[in-house]
Design goal:
mainly alpha; Arc Repressor Mutant, subunit A; 3-stranded antiparallel sheet; 3 strands; globular
Length: 120
């Protein structure tokens, strides 16, 4: 799957077609969640879809410790609450998550970080 119309490349130590973690500072799991949410064409996502896509794009970050082939939804719980508190996203697990205006700006900055490293 391409993000924002750019194909992914494979890098050593990651799944085929999955972007590696950028060398330039991406601050946290929060940034990765914003990046993934920004990649959705409709800009909205259910909790389940967000877990699936975060794991698909960054399996080394969003997997269970003892079962790395499976996603760990708990790794999104606290970061999603933090992103809501910072007013970067709106929504909750019972409805849909979407980026706020400031969240979209932050996600665009994160996307540029990935592009500058030619990881996508």
């Amino acid at each position: 799957m391409a993000i924002m119309g750019i194909s992914k490349i494979s890098v050593p130590g990651s799944s085929p077609g999955v972007p590696a973690m950028p060398r330039k500072k991406v601050n946290s799991i929060n940034d990765l969640i914003l990046f993934v949410l920004y990649s959705f064409t409709d800009g909205k996502s259910s909790f389940e879809r967000l877990v699936k896509e975060c794991f698909s794009q960054f399996p080394q970050v969003f997997s269970l410790k003892d079962y790395p082939q499976l996603p760990d939804s708990r790794k999104l719980d606290r970061p999603l609450r933090d992103l809501r508190k910072k007013k970067l996203i709106k929504g909750d697990p019972q409805t849909l998550f979407s980026l706020t205006t400031s969240g979209k700006r932050k996600a665009e900055e994160i996307t540029l970080t990935f592009k500058q490293r030619k990881l996508l």
